[in-house]
Amino acid sequence: MLHAPPLPTEPDAALAQLNEAIDSLRDAGGLSRDAVLGAFRRHLARIQHHVQETFEQEGLSGLEAARRLSGLTDGLVAALFAHATGPDGPGRIGERLTIAATGGYGRGVLAPFSDIDLLFLTQATPAPATLRAVEYMLYFLWDLGLKVGHATRSVAECLAEAARDTTVRTSLLDARPVCGDTKLFEEFAAQFRANCREAGPAEFFAAKQAERDARHRRYGDSPFLVEPNVKEGRGGLRDMQTLYWMARYVFGITTVAELVGPDGPGLLQEMEARHARRSWDFLWTVRFHLHYVAGRAEERLTFDLQPVIGARMGYTRHGRQDGVERFMRHYFLTVREVVRATHLLEPAILRAALGPPALAAQTDPALLDAGFVLAEGKLLPAPDRGFDAEPLQMLRVLQVARDRNLTLHPLTLRALIRHERRAVALRGDPDAAAIFLDLLCGDDDGHAHRRADGARWLSVMNETGFLGRYLPDWARIVGQMQFDTYHVFTVDEHTIEAVRVLNAVERGELRDAVPVASGVMDHLQSRRALYVALLLHDIAKGRGGDHSELGAEVAQEVGPAIGLSAEETETVSWLVLHHLLLSQTAFKRDIDDPKTILDLAETIQSPERLRLLLALTVADMRAVSPKVWNGWKATLLRELYARVGEVLAGGLSTAERDVRVARARQAAAALMDGWTQDDIAHFWELGYGGYWLSFDPETHARHARLVREAERRGAPLTVETMPLPARAVTEVTVYVADHAGLFSRIAGALAVAGASIVDARIHTMTNGMALDTFWIQDAGGGAFDAPHRLARLSALIEQALSGRLRLSAEIKEASRSVIGRRMRAIHVPPRVVIDNHASNTHTVLEVNGRDRPGLLHDVTAAISDQGLQIASAHVTTYGVRAVDVFYVKDVFGLKVENERKLAGLREALLGALTNPEDPMPLPVRRVAAAAR
To answer: Do 287 and 436 belong to one domain?
Structure first.
């Protein structure tokens, strides 16, 4: 094969080369099936190598490569047909036979690992000789390693199937003859087109729209999912093909250019057609890279593939943006163009095929005065009140649709897209600002339809391009992805989803999931500020620096521009600045530490701000990803909200600590039925003050029973597990003699058991025993509650503490099955922050690194090796990023403040965060291989 002649780029020349190879075999007397199969196999390898090489080395676009691969495949199929029906094949056939390409192959485009769809078309029911020839060709193609979709039908059968099945009719729309009796195909095509005209387009269009809607539900209704499906996702290749099928059904077109006037039907402007062609070519280029990098028919642009394909397509770091982020933003802007093309082209095709929409004869005078009419029950701008002349009508049409509970006509969306640039004229217009705020926030007048659907109108404004023109800062986050496994949407789509969540909270639909946030919504004095803050909370992402601080500055400018008062603008700016404050405190700090609560209260200052911040935090978190919110996080936020609220109401001060400890002891004693006063006093003396402030009375009473039973039995180790489904966690309590490295060993045992630690409290009692409490979840984020798993967990803790469990080896084994290839694509640099100001009594350590089984074991072992005692641990994961916070003291019970000690601690923690078993990340390997 090394000495084989180069493959000609023209299909006819390549076919001639293959025929010459077969003739040479015949002349040598070796025309056996295996010999012919070998010749075809070598030719197919040359085709595949040629297309890949020219695509990757010579800058061939994906669409050009798809067309070249299709054309060269035509030659291979034609040569096989000639061989199978010639004297050297299984026998001559005595009837007319055409081989037609259908599906994507029929459109003349073929991806590297896509199926080859073939129709073996006969004039009448296929004869046995024909069936033998077809069977020979199919087995031959399969032996070549090709995936072949096939059907053998007569002309009458094809027409009958097309009439019954829309999928077959769609496939035949794309059909074209490859070889055989092409006149037979022309006769069939004429009858097929006549049947389509007779059936009319209405049923076909309805079927294609239903099929598209079902596909969107399956692959994600949003075009802005961060791991999109290039072929089937919204805004992907299949959506463009759906538009093509509709246009081809009505006009018989084969290219987008034919839809541009004046020679065509004039459905698209030249610029719109140019955008469509560019989107089509870009998506095909991405798809070709996907297939080649994955080595299979991969259509999903996953995290591990994104950096590789971005690099292959020439996207490099520019300013503050990584190459992969630039590539994915181009991708998302492209799929938005496809969505816009759908809104532009589909109503125009429907209008051309089915006639203009019938205007309602009795459109009421008020609607007419406002400049709108009804068509097919949907809202349209009046012919003499277009958006170009009156750009304010672009906002008014949304307001009228909302107030009258009307659907926008597809032609209205088309007009919004075509005139989105006119939104620039509305900047600074007070009437436009008033309508925009009304659409975002709704009226606070008890009308549910006015208060509950701001996200719906934001989505329309974003997809049509209006929002980015009206708010220039918004345009900077459109299509901007966050390259992590935490967020599932781009920044703009996440923001709209957050508003959608807040709408649902305000309607009371999430009362069971977020009861406190649902309750505060009825008591807010600053609804408009809350909604605008949610709109702007991530507006400065991607600019470098702290997006909260930069966003607060943006809010100071945007607030007055959209009609907010100075007071509202200040509130919005404050909320944007602190929108992460509650979540970071709840999940990273010890909320039982009075200083944590007092510092938070000092920042928040007012109950109204606390209510606003809670509502914003809940909406923001639930909009990130379905996996982010769980019962445990909800519990922590509720507790934090209650404690800060207590301070703001004047109910807590550091001077009351002893009083609170005494109250906690009394509350626990009230639940210790049948205990003598001496037994109660004994338990009281076991716990230091921090212990009594860390749990509720019921837990204290349960601990008392656990300790008394352990002392009675002289048990060296007691492990108690209690699932808490309402909080989506299982509480694990370990009572054992305290010693260095205890936390690390327990954490290692829990990792081997497959449990994920979400929080921990470590208490050394006055008798030298440790009473450590861990809250754990399973891999799915739920309570770790299966009885057999709990039994194994207890056994593993006992084995770990007795030294019979080889923790490092077991954890290493567990890591192999958990850390997937996709996750390794996300770079998580290790980071250690040491804070001696967050607590009056402890040094606070915050460590950031890639999450993996046993990470907590490694980190806590490093802390113990430095001679430090861990008082509490707070564990949070953001996708693959772990953020673990520890409250520690030295052996004398003091903060760690010696600079040399702190430097050694930081170095030890960075070493623990680095996993020596991690291989080189997959994208790096692939890019290196591509460079070779």
So the answer is: no
Out of 603, 634, 652, pick the residue that ends a domain: 652
Alpha carbons within 13 A on the beta-carbon side of 403: 14
Q: How far apart are CA 581 and CA 55, in angstroms?
A: 49
Whether 5 is in a domain gets the answer no
| Residue 517 near residue 618 (C-beta atoms within 8 A) | yes
- In sequence order, what E strands does 102-161 have? 116-122, 148-154
**Kind plus residue range of the DSSP H or E element containing 878:** strand 869-878
- Choosing from 438, 470, 502, the residue where a domain stops is 470
Contact 268, 259 (CB under 8 A): yes
Residues 343 and 433 in one domain: no
Question: Are 736 and 635 found together in one domain?
Answer: no
Q: Are residues 170 and 228 in the same domain?
A: no
Question: Looking at residue 409, what DSSP letter applies?
Answer: P
The per-residue pLDDT for range 308-324, each reduced to its tens digit, is 999 999 999 887 788 88
Same domain, 277 and 367: no
Note the pLDDT of residue 9: 64
Buried/exposed 707-730: b ≥16 CB within 10 Å, e otherwise: beebeeeeeeebbbbebeeebbbb
H helices present in 803-898, as ranges: 807-818, 821-824, 855-865
Locate the DSSP E strands across 172-217: 176-180
Pair 185, 275 in one domain: no
Bond from prior residue into 262 cis (ω within 30 degrees of 0): yes
Asked if residue 344 belongs to a domain, the reply is yes
Domain residues for 380?
358-470
Structure tokens at 815: 């890591």
Q: How many Cβ atoms are within 10 Å of 551's Cβ, its own excluded? A: 26
Tokens describing residue 679: 């037994």
- Compute the distance between CA of residue 555 and CA of residue 623 in angstroms, rounded to an integer: 21
Sheet containing strand 378-381, strands side by side? 372-375, 378-381, 407-408
Q: How many domains does the chain have?
A: 5
Joined together, the tokens standing for residue 64 give: 């050009």
Token look-up 């009719």 returns 169
3-state secondary structure 674-741: CCCHHHHHHHHHHCCHHHHCCCCHHHHHHHHHHHHHHHHHCCCEEEEEEEEHHHCEEEEEEEEECCCC
CATH number at residue 133: 3.30.460.10
Residue 925 lies in a domain: no
Q: pLDDT tens digits, residue range 25-51?
A: 777 766 788 888 998 999 999 999 999
Longest dimension (CA), the chain: 110
Question: Given this model, what pLDDT does residue 633 score?
Answer: 84
Token digits for 46?
């040359």
**CB–CB of 323/315 below 8 Å?**
yes
Asked, for residue 929, whether it belongs to a domain, the answer is no
Cβ neighbours of residue 197 under 8 Å, at least 6 residues apart? Answer: none
CA gap 818, 1 in Å, rounded: 42
pLDDT tens sequence across 653-667? 544 677 888 989 999
Q: What CATH number does residue 246 fall under?
A: 1.20.120.330
Tell me, yes or no, whether 43 and 95 share the same domain: yes
Of 165, 181, 776, 353, the C-alpha closest to 173 is 165
Residue 267: CA count within 13 A, CB half-sphere: 29
Mean pLDDT of 815-822: 55
The answer to whether residue 672 scores a pLDDT higher than 80 is yes
Q: Are residues 178 and 107 in the same domain?
A: yes
- 781 DSSP assignment: S
Query: Which of 75-79, 216-220, 645-649 bottoms out in mean pLDDT, i.e. has the lowest?
Result: 645-649
